[in-house]
Amino acid sequence: MSWLALAPRVNLEQGFASVRTLHERRGENWELKETEGQPWGRVLGDYLTQKGDENSSFKLRDYGFQLGYDRIEKKEAGHRLTGIFAGYRVGKAKFYGEDENKHPRYQGKLRTHHFHLGAEHTRYAKDGGYVDLVGLMSYFRNQYQARLEGEKVRYSGFGVLFSVEAGKPFAVSSSEEKIGWFIEPQAQLIYQFIASKNPNDKIEMSNSNALRGRVGVRVVRNRALDDEWQARSLYAVANIWKDFYNRTGVRINDVKFEQGYGNLWWEAGVGLQLPLSRKLYLYTDVRYEQQFGHRAGHHGYRGVIGLKYN
């Protein structure tokens, strides 16, 4: 049952996936026409494989949706978006160990439901520089089943997450303000804590802490439309992610099992925002990620499609 030490990692990844980056979550909001509020919604899906340092691994398929509303405040120096959002995700994970020939062997599965409520505040300067702050509260309802035992065991967890992200675009070739090619360095730091309830008297789930950071760059092409529409935006993005602390554990019959994970990986993707009408906009983003030098240790892909109304 040492593979069960991977289960808290699944919940951590669900929490991170519910925030991600500003442009995955909210699209492009550098240029906003006269509006006081912006309701939005998005659907998202992820596939992720990770291997622990004790020769156990998991494969996670996770998908869900979010709905939110932001109030927009215009200032001389730029504008601010402040809002709330709520969402739901469902994940299905399979856990594997290794047999005597180092081949993966199925050990058990986990089904998890993630309910979350978040608050966000984003400040844009007139030159496009931004700071994005996010807070998230999570409730996880989990059910795992071991291959040999067959009994379904339920337990829950509660989590909090805080994220701060900053970026600033620099014009490469621009025919007018906010239109043309831009390169945008970005940085982000996310902290998450999850407290899990114990499934039974024999199994004690450890509380989980994780600190994750990112540096990256986004290359953006903004194309002008008429005065009443936002610009059409197309971008490519590349990031390096690092986990500064990423161990998870479980105690079974007073024996403690822990798992560590690869802590450095790269990510690349593309995104697009299009106006469907003068007030309705579609945004989408797809990405691939992989551990440096060790694809089997960590790789995955994800996508999102959203709508927002000014």
Automatic annotation (TrEMBL):
InterPro entries: Autotransporte_beta, Autotransporte_beta_dom_sf, Autotransporter_adhesion, OM_autotransptr_brl_dom. Transmembrane segments: none annotated. GO terms for cellular component: outer membrane. Residues 32-310 form the Autotransporter domain. SUPFAM superfamilies: Autotransporter. PROSITE patterns: AUTOTRANSPORTER. It comes from the Bacteria. This is Autotransporter domain-containing protein. It comes from Avibacterium paragallinarum (Haemophilus gallinarum).
